[in-house]
Amino acid sequence: MHVTGSRGRLLTSRRSLLGLAGVAAGTSLLPRAGRADAASTIVPRRPIAPADALIAFGHTGPITDGGWSMVHDRGVQAVRRAFPGIRTVYVESVPYSADATRIFRQFVAEGANMVFATSEYGDFIKDVSDRAPDVAFMECDGTTLTPNLGWYYVSHWYASYIIGIAAGLMSKTGRLGFIGAFPIPSVYASANATLLGAQSVNPAMTLQGITINAWFDPQAATQAATALVDNGCDFLCGIMDEPAYLRVAVARGVRAAMWNTGMLKYGPEAYVSSVVLDFNDFYVAQVRALLDGTWRPSAAFLTLGHGVDRDAWGPGVPEGVARQADDMRDRMLAGYNPFRGPIHDNHGRLRVPAGVTLDDAAIYHCDWAVAGVSGLG
To answer: Is this structure's pTM higher than 0.90?
Structure first.
């Protein structure tokens, strides 16, 4: 347990995972589709003094995971710096079960004015938010917009596409290996974008995926990565909350691109780059709006260069490869969208006709694999 700030109160849970302190947020956002009628029923909010505010965070993993939950915890720390004296509480490793509902209810019972779920908890959080209309709720990777519940996510597919270009230029076997948690839209979006980027410079590229049913399981990730390299993949990528498969890449002499944060230190000789996330500004902005009395539920993406980007290129990335990949990054920052038809799925069905461009909402809800992907569905 970690306690700081004024009038700290004790929150207990079966997960034994607590912290009280200060909070902050702010970022450039791209609005997305939600329940359009939600805003019309919002009850006006009153300003809150920082000393009277309690902000709660429910994390999907441990904040020491070196990845997803650690990045969100950095956002919690940014809130504390921005609003000295504000109180925060967090619970790590919130399960995807009825225990999540109990934890979110505890936040409300403890007097939280705002609750962030740093992963998708669906009805587990919505059931609580529906019964606590005076509390502001935000769900990362969510889909529901109500008068007091919004969601936010990162448009990570652009950074993945950029890294995919490097993968396509550097791979000798033409086979990418991908480690994911579950066959869900965020995983499809990452795998699809990486392969499409690779295919933009080498149309023969393929991607083999393995899902391990966990975001944080170093042993399973190591086993999956080893199997992929044994099957001829010479470039590893994926969405994991720790660097296990980078260590496999080092041991096996292949390349790897990571996720969540820069992980160069875990294997510089194999490291290519990483999709890096930064929720600091977003959290500061949300809390500031709550304190000002101007908070409204929203559906928003953190965009390329504003909350998500690629990490610096690893030392083994040739200058020409970096330049070619970054040329695409420059085009994206200028407004170019590379997710253009025709795009077929891995069963041969035309999913995106010629002349059609996938917007962020369509990519975010994607539940199919592009041609060349195997192992994900």
So the answer is: no
